Amino acid sequence: MKVKIIQVAGRVERQDAKVGPYKKEPGNFHKAMCAAAYYARKMNCRMVVIPGNSYMNKVYHIAQVDEDLKKFCPGQNEVAVGIMEPSGVGYTGRATED
User: Fold this and answer.
1) Cβ 84 vs Cβ 16: under 8 Å
2) pLDDT in tens, 18-27
3) Could you give the number of structural domains in the chain?
4) Hey, how many other C-beta atoms are within 10 angstroms of the C-beta on 88?
5) What CA–CA distance (Å, rounded) separates 1 from 64?
6) Closest C-alpha to 84, from 25, 19, 5
7) Spatial strand order in the sheet of 57-64
8) How far apart are CA 36 and CA 17, in angstroms?
9) Spatial contact of 17 and 38, defined as CB atoms under 8 Å apart
10) Which terminus of the chain is more solvent-facing, meaning fewer CB atoms within 10 Å of its CB: N or C?
11) What range does the domain containing 67 cover?
């Protein structure tokens, strides 16, 4: 899937970039973006927060942009995603079929 940035969503400061709150509540988009900011800084690459489900519960998955995102949302051609840069700047965007 190809990821396209639509608009700036905000910035996550270094002290707010934590994984623990996301692990406790994976259905919260804000906590998923904060965890993505942590991973983006740690791995120095762009991360994507993509919606999905786990046993019929809404969750957000965190993946690298170059990873196959289709496995997180099977049967969908276009999905709204959050994109996090290593600098902590977050964007909203769309992931579409190639």
Assistant:
1) no
2) 999 999 999 9
3) 1
4) 18
5) 12
6) 5
7) 2-11, 89-96, 78-84, 47-54, 57-64
8) 8
9) yes
10) C
11) 2-96
